[in-house]
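User: Just a sanity check before I run the rest of the batch. Below are the structure tokens for the first item. I only need the designed sequence back.
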């Protein structure tokens, strides 16, 4: 299954929204290949990271070693790695085919048509970045050796905003987009609440958190790629959803 680029592994061009018929993302025992030979670099980079942001936590997360897209079906093989290893790869290894970051993202639509997004807090590894509530898969999202994307979306949304995806209407379809060896698999959730109500609930959640992961939640109503500090995968998603209507 090993490929050096996602396009060589059957994925469309970067920034292309595509349908996902199914996914099977296995988490295997043993070390991820990125760990082999990079131990010193990972440790040194972690020291730099925590010097800049002492609140970073070196927990375990799922990091893909192989991904293949075949007729809409995504197959992957991953390992649990320290967060420090992922940050080292993000700085020094992205684009080299030595690993891939895959995560799940709920695209929450308010009753009055806004795409709900969050702004990451300054204490996180993505300060100021704007995207829907989402986060890396971790060991709590792995069951019987497989990644649980729906469970991850529920957990991350609840932790970051206090909102319950179970109270929203989930569309059955999954779609995805990739950029810079990062794959976002997303699903539309339609809330019965308007933008203002969702913002109020999330703001109340942030107010009582001792170390909130986000600084704000708000609605997006245009596909303008310069409106906020978006990661590369967000402008194609916004363009797609606003054209879709």
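Assistant: Here's the designed sequence for the first item:
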């Amino acid at each position: 299954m090993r490929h050096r680029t996602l396009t060589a592994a059957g994925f469309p061009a970067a920034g292309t929204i595509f349908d996902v018929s199914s996914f099977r993302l296995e988490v295997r025992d043993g070390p991820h290949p990125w760990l082999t030979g990079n131990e010193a670099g990972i440790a040194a980079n972690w020291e730099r990271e925590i010097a800049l942001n002492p609140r970073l936590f070196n927990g375990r997360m799922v990091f893909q070693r192989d991904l293949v897209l075949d007729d809409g079906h995504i197959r992957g093989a991953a390992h649990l790695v320290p967060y420090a290893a992922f940050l080292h790869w993000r700085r020094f290894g992205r684009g080299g085919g030595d690993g891939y970051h895959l995560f799940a993202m709920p695209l929450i639509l308010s009753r009055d048509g806004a795409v709900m997004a969050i702004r990451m807090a300054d204490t996180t590894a993505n300060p100021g970045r704007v995207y829907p509530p989402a986060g890396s898969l971790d060991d709590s999202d792995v069951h019987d050796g497989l990644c649980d994307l729906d469970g991850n979306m529920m957990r991350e949304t609840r932790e970051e905003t206090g909102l319950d995806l179970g109270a929203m209407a989930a569309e059955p379809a999954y779609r995805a987009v990739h950029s810079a060896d990062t794959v976002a698999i997303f699903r539309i959730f339609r809330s019965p609440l308007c933008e203002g109500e969702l913002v109020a609930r999330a703001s109340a959640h942030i107010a009582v958190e001792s170390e909130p992961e986000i600084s704000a939640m708000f609605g997006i109503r245009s596909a303008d790629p310069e409106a906020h500090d978006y990661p590369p995968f967000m402008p194609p998603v916004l363009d797609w959803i606003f054209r879709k209507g």
